[in-house]
Design a protein that fits this description.
Elements: H1 10-24, E1 26-28, H2 29-36, H3 40-52, E2 57-59, E3 62-64, H4 74-94, E4 103-106, H5 110-122, E5 127-130, H6 133-139, E6 146-148, E7 153-155, E8 160-162, H7 164-170, E9 175-181, E10 184-186, E11 190-193, H8 198-208, E12 209-215, E13 227-230, E14 237-240, H9 246-254, E15 259-261
Parallel strand pairs: 4-5, 4-9, 5-6, 9-12, 12-14, 14-15
Antiparallel strand pairs: 1-3, 2-3, 7-8, 10-11, 11-13
Helix pairs in contact: 2-3, 4-5, 5-6, 7-8
């Protein structure tokens, strides 16, 4: 491993690779290089080892989980990862806003799962408050992280926690950055969501945070869900991907909405 690379231990790298495959079913070596901050050769050696252990199946350009073994043709492989690539792109740019030793909060959502993976790969000392048990699981083996999961009622579909007690506990923290994974964004309705209980958790996180950041891939823009969260004037920044339509991007910026667009970086 070169001196400029992250010194993640092999065991931790292997755990992150398996988590990536569990959530996506497939992954490319280039994605893993970005996630783990190591060389392509190190990624390939890790995949070889995990294949020998029977934990994945290597394919050209990456790997698939054992359950995806029959779906290894390249066309299918590339089409399956497009949506996940967008979320990964968002996450990669979102973590640029974080500094070592900060307190960060992540609500439940697939984009924040990607953010959590990159926080684990990049930082050694963070405090993370989350209502997502999937996020907590990703961060569980980071010995330098303080991971706080407020108690509440379990949502079995989202694998996340809700309830008044969790909202009150979140409000006790002084949070540097809140990363909010959301279902829909529009200029008219602001942030909206369909998950019962998530609205209250999100608002508690926003009220407690010094900086409020929405992480959302470009498919979420100008869509509306049925539960109101808050107006766009209540957030500081939206981080999205490079697939966002330029006209739509200009329209949001004309309304003084701060957008970090991955394609402009």
């Amino acid at each position: 491993m070169s001196t400029g690379e992250n010194d993640l231990l092999a065991q931790e790298r292997h755990r992150l690779i398996i988590l990536e495959l569990e959530s996506k079913g497939q992954v490319t070596v280039v994605e893993l290089k970005s996630l783990l901050q190591v060389s392509l050769d190190t990624v390939r050696r890790d995949l070889e080892r995990l294949e020998l252990e029977g934990k994945l199946q290597r394919v050209h350009g990456g790997a698939v989980s054992k359950r995806e073994e029959l779906a290894t043709n390249q066309t299918f492989f590339k089409s399956k990862i497009t949506q996940n690539e967008r979320k990964q792109e968002v996450a990669m740019h979102a973590v640029e806003l974080v500094k070592e030793y900060q307190a960060v909060t992540l609500n439940a959502g697939t984009t924040n799962i990607e953010v959590a993976k990159r926080l684990a790969a990049r930082f050694e000392k963070l405090t993370v408050i989350t209502n997502s048990l999937r996020v907590a699981d990703i961060l569980a083996q980071k010995k330098g992280f303080t991971v706080i999961v407020p108690g509440g009622y379990l949502n079995h579909e989202e694998f996340s926690l809700y309830g008044r007690s969790i909202e009150e506990e979140i409000m006790n923290f002084n949070i540097d950055i809140a990363f909010i994974s959301i279902n829909a964004i529009s200029l008219e309705k602001g942030l909206t969501d369909f998950r019962q209980g998530e609205a209250e958790v999100i608002n508690a996180m926003l009220k407690s945070a010094r900086r409020k950041v929405v992480v959302a891939d470009s498919s979420k823009f100008e869509t509306v869900s049925y539960l109101n969260i808050c107006g766009l004037d209540q957030i500081d920044t939206i981080v999205t991907d490079s697939y966002m339509d330029d006209t739509l991007l200009d329209m949001y910026k004309k309304h003084n909405i701060s957008i970090i667009n991955a394609g402009s970086s």
